[in-house]
């Protein structure tokens, strides 16, 4: 199973890339206490953290290895929203006056836990990319608004 999304962001790829490859960037549009370390070769580690998330007000931590980071072109990492690690790839392409951001997530198995995680992430990534667009284009931080 694979998740695919794309969104147009009216901003240069440098700005989108910086938002995706820094803890400050993630914490501005999606998470609360993410920690991200990248080495000079584009590897590293990402720990995504959410506090009081969703209707159950859960504290969630997930993350894994950063597999590749090519400045202004791509950012690839692993995490484990189900029972198996998945790979999330952001690809940035110049388009019109901005950036076309493509997201692919792969690695889900056919187990009930992975299928449930895949469905949740398919919806979640769509919402998250909209939040990313609003943040980058307008500087609006609205992640609190979607925590019902």
TrEMBL record:
UniProt xrefs under CDD domains: SRPBCC_CalC_Aha1-like (cd07814)
Pfam family, any one: AHSA1
Boundaries of every Activator of Hsp90 ATPase homologue 1/2-like C-terminal domain copy: 10-134
SUPFAM superfamilies membership: Bet v1-like
Protein family membership: Belongs to the AHA1 family.
Name of this protein: SRPBCC domain-containing protein
Source species: Lederbergia citri
């Amino acid at each position: 199973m694979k998740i695919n999304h794309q969104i147009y962001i009216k901003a240069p790829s440098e700005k989108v890339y910086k938002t995706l490859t820094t803890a400050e960037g993630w914490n501005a549009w999606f998470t609360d206490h993410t920690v991200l370390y990248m080495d000079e070769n584009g590897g590293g580690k990402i720990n995504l953290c959410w506090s009081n998330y969703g209707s159950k007000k859960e504290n969630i931590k997930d993350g894994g290895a950063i597999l590749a980071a090519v400045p202004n072109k791509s950012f690839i990492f692993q995490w484990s929203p189900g029972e198996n690690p998945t790979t999330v790839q952001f690809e940035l392409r110049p388009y019109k006056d901005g950036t076309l951001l493509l997201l692919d997530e792969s690695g889900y198995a056919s187990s009930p836990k992975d299928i449930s995680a895949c469905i949740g992430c398919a919806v979640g990534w769509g919402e998250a990319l909209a939040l990313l667009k609003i943040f980058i284009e307008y500087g609006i931080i609205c992640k609190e608004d979607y925590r019902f």
